[in-house]
Amino acid sequence: MRLVIVTGLSGAGKSTALKMLEDARYFCVDNLPIPLVGKFVSLMSGSQEEDVQNAAIGIDARSGKALEELEVVLDKLKAEGHTFEILFLDAEDKVLVKRYKESRRSHPLALNGRVDDGIRQERRKTEFLRKRADYIIDTTHLLTRELKKELNNIFVDNGKFSNMMISVLSFGFKYGIPEDADLVFDVRFLPNPYYVDELRPLTGQDEGVFDYVMDNEIARQFAAKLDDMVKFLIPNYAKEGKTSLVIAIGCTGGKHRSVTLARVLYDRLIETKEYGIRLEHRDIGKDALLKK
Questions:
Q1: Taxonomically, which superkingdom (predicted)?
Q2: Strand, helix or coil for residue 79
């Protein structure tokens, strides 16, 4: 039996992850009292039910002071020969605050009503779980379908997983540099399809624009050097414990050149199959909206 302990920060997607595992035929229990964790694992390990092959337990800050006892429970389970994996879901503080405001729910540790205070307390209380985690997924930039894809890769397909989630983001400088960008690259030095009448209404998603931008030795050299540098940086960021990396590529309007180079970098990174990779074009449609 495969046993997964699903934990992390409130608002980072734990409940969603449990529902996804349940869809994948895991027997899921949420907010199980800490004193019952050991008994549940023993019971499931000895189960003869053919329908119950895998199980997941949701544990978080709602356990209160009992959460401090979990480390002892986990050590005991390991000593008894039980195997388990820990999935830790995380997200940036500002995103967690935003999600709580949108849901109008109160944070379980925000006794004074301040969500950010509750998040800080929760980070301290769950730090031991983060350190022991087998998988850390930062959901800051993940869509629901992207989270499902990662969970299926790990817990259904038994695929290779890295705790680093990389977002390749195209944008337009005239709409501002993305606030969450870790690395920003300016490709406004490349020939601009905007000045070609038949290409102006198209985007970097169209092959005509893509070919126009990449049919240039400087663009190809830049793409190769960018690919080389990023592949050098990623494992070093990962060694320092970074779990989310946003690589932003910008041109004037975020419609032609940045989209093209973001596509090129995404395709090269996804070939490695070592990290979670997502592609987003932030400003690709803004030019058309403004004209309306």
A1: Bacteria
A2: helix
Q: From the CB of residue 235, how many other CB atoms can be counted at a distance below 10 Å?
A: 12
Domains detected in the chain: 2-155 (3.40.50.300), 165-291 (no CATH)
Consult the annotation and say whether 63 binds a ligand. yes
Closest CA to 283 of 250, 260, 261: 250
User: For 10-57, how does the pLDDT look when each residue is reduced to its tens digit (9 = 90+)?
Assistant: 889 999 999 999 999 999 999 888 989 988 888 887 665 656 678 999
pTM of the predicted protein model = 0.70
Residue-wise DSSP of 175-225? G---TT-SEEEE-TTS--GGGSTTTTT--TTSHHHHHHHHSSHHHHHHHHH
Give the residue from 166, 168, 137 showing the smallest Cα distance to 154: 137
User: Is there a contact between 21 and 29 (Cβ–Cβ < 8 Å)?
Assistant: no
Residue 13 assigned as binding residue? yes
66 annotated to a ligand binding site: no
Residue 281 region by backbone torsions, left for phi larger than 0, else alpha for psi between -120 and 50, else beta: beta
244: annotated binding-site residue? no
| Residue 18 assigned to a binding site | no
3-state secondary structure of 167: strand
| Residue 61 annotated as lining a ligand binding site | yes
> Does the annotation flag 149 for ligand binding?
no
Q: How far apart are CA 153 and CA 260, in angstroms?
A: 28
Task: Judge whether 101 is annotated as a binding position.
Answer: no
Q: Tell me the per-residue pLDDT of 95-121, one tens digit each, with 9 for 90 and over.
A: 988 888 777 677 777 766 677 888 888
The Cβ of residue 207 has, within 10 Å, a number of other Cβ atoms equal to 9
DSSP classification of residue 107: P
Residue 60 assigned to a binding site = yes
